[in-house]
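Form 7-S
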Amino acid sequence: MQEFPKLFIPGPTHVPSEILEVLSTPQIGHRTPEISSLIDFIIKGIQKILYTKNHIYLVSHAATGLWEMGTKNSVQKGILHCSNGAFSSKWALSSKKNGFKTRNIEYEWGKAVKVDEIDKLLKTGQYDVLAMVHNETSTGVMSDLDAISTLLKNKYPSVVWLVDAVSSMAGIKIDVDRLGIDFLLSSTQKAWGLPAGFSVCSVSNKLIEKSKTLSNKGYFLDIEVYEKYYLKLQTPTTPSIPHMFGLKKIIELIELEGIENRWKRHIELSEHTIKWARNHGQELFPDKGCHSFTLTCLKNIQNWDIDKINEELLNKGFRMDRGYGNLKGKVFRIPHMGNIYKKDLEEYLTTIDDIICKLNY
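Output:
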């Protein structure tokens, strides 16, 4: 067995050696023409992947920090959160701890965000910001961005729309400019297929202008500070340069694969996984029609001993997911994003087949 198991967890995800090697590229100065050239390449590449002309910020910390960049630079009256899983709930908690007037629409885990309740609460005029998670990693639920986009464009064009796309960006097509998303954030350890510790976000002109009207934003997450350095193709603080070289490599790989082929691959891997699960008598945890394309969350109705299967998988060189939080054992998640291709997924599922046969399931 290799020293560490191959990761089949929803993050960090598998990073192959050809990408890991790029992270050891010699360092360059963070205030040099070389870094500006690298940043220019990355920004233009991400803009293509997100179908946007918005500014792209490169951030050397977890995407959790971008939750607060989004809120600190946008909330004036109040923020409306949509919580349908662990991470959307934590984002709402972040807003409360920052002292913002916060209202939280709580959905049952497994369900997607819907427009009706959003409409009802935005109608009160008490909230100038809407925050949600596109692809809730804890439950494998993907919410419909198009329906919410239509609502905001038609009835609430001044509301700032913040979207967490941590487990969907670079794995699921998100047409930022068509949808009108003001702030789209992600980290690198999921569908981008890089190690953790780095994040990216797309920032609209509307949000940039809104930020200028707000005070008490601090320094570290202030969009006005980021703008000053963005215009120079730099970052406010010394960045994780290895991650930047890694992002350049990933962008090149996406261009080589073809962006439409990348979206198609993730959908096909999702369909393959669902078919495999149903053949074994398991069910999807998300409601019908809202399952993620980057990870499949399965309801363990066959009562498999997930801990035992995990133990057997570790012996065979794989690390599996056993469910998040209170769902542990009741569900299990199979990620198929980033650097996972059909052959990787088939190898993993075939190994599980051998184990459940051995365990007489």
